Each structure stands twice: as C-alpha cells, then as structure tokens.
Automatic annotation (TrEMBL):
This is Uncharacterized protein.
C-alpha cells in the first residue's frame, strides 16, 4: 500500500501524469456521478430531456435512412457507369479490330491493283518489244527487198 501511495504522490507531482490520472479517474467515476446527478433532478426536467433526446434520435434516424438511400442510389449509379465503361471499352476494341480488318482489306486491294498494273505494264512492255522486233524484221525485209 505504501508503494502505491508513493507512486500516486510522484505522479501528482509530475503534471503530465497528474492530468492523465485525473482524466482516468473522471472516466472511471463518470457513470456514478451522472447517476447521482440524475437522482437529484426533478421529474419534469428528466421528461423534457428524454423527449428532446427522442426527437434528436428520430432526426438522426431520418438522416441515416436518407444517407442510406443516397448511398444505394450512388452505388447503383457507380455500377451503371462501370457497365457503360466496360461496354465502351468493348466497342472501342471492336471498332479498332474492324478498322484494322478494313485497312488490311484496302491494302490487299491496293496490292492487287498494283500487281495487276505491274502485270499489265509487263505485258505492255512485251507487246512493245514484240512490236519493235516486228518493226525491225519488217525493216530488214524491206531492206532485203530493196537489195533484190
């Protein structure tokens, strides 16, 4: 017991520990003090206080219900926005894929046209070479006929 009182005295000297001890004492004895004070209050005061607290609790319950409704509404909106976002991402990927396929088709057609054009040019060159060869042969034939 002596040790306890020595610690208590030392704590009372140090202001930080003294404050903590005072707060702890108030916390531990607070309910008993409130009960004693309520016994001393008149009935009318207690009824008025009870009615005021009931009104306050009703207001708080209404606010909580309203907050809950808003929270549900916001959750639904969030879910809808996420669904729309996912759909938009899918549409964007589908559009990209379609554009890619369309681009490949255009490039393939262009390649075919260029290949066809190259083949036509090659055929034209062969025809021109053949015409040139025929012209040379005709000239040789004319020259031979002139010599004869």
């Amino acid at each position: 017991i002596f040790k306890h009182w020595l610690i208590f005295s030392n704590n009372r000297i140090q202001y930080v520990k003294a404050d903590m001890q005072e707060v702890f004492s108030r916390w531990r004895m607070g309910d008993l003090k409130m009960a004693c004070e309520l016994d001393r209050q008149p009935l009318k005061y207690l009824l008025d206080k009870n009615q005021l607290q009931s009104k306050t609790l009703m207001i708080i319950a209404d606010k909580e219900a309203e907050s809950e409704a808003q929270l549900k509404h916001l959750s639904l909106q969030r879910d809808e926005l996420l669904e729309h976002y996912i759909r938009s991402q899918r549409l964007a990927l589908a559009l990209w894929r379609d554009n890619y396929t369309k681009g490949k088709g255009k490039i393939f057609k262009l390649w075919q046209e260029l290949k066809k054009g190259a083949a036509q040019e090659e055929a034209q060159m062969q025809v021109m070479d053949a015409v040139e060869a025929m012209t040379q042969i005709k000239e040789k034939v004319r020259d031979m006929e002139k010599e004869n």
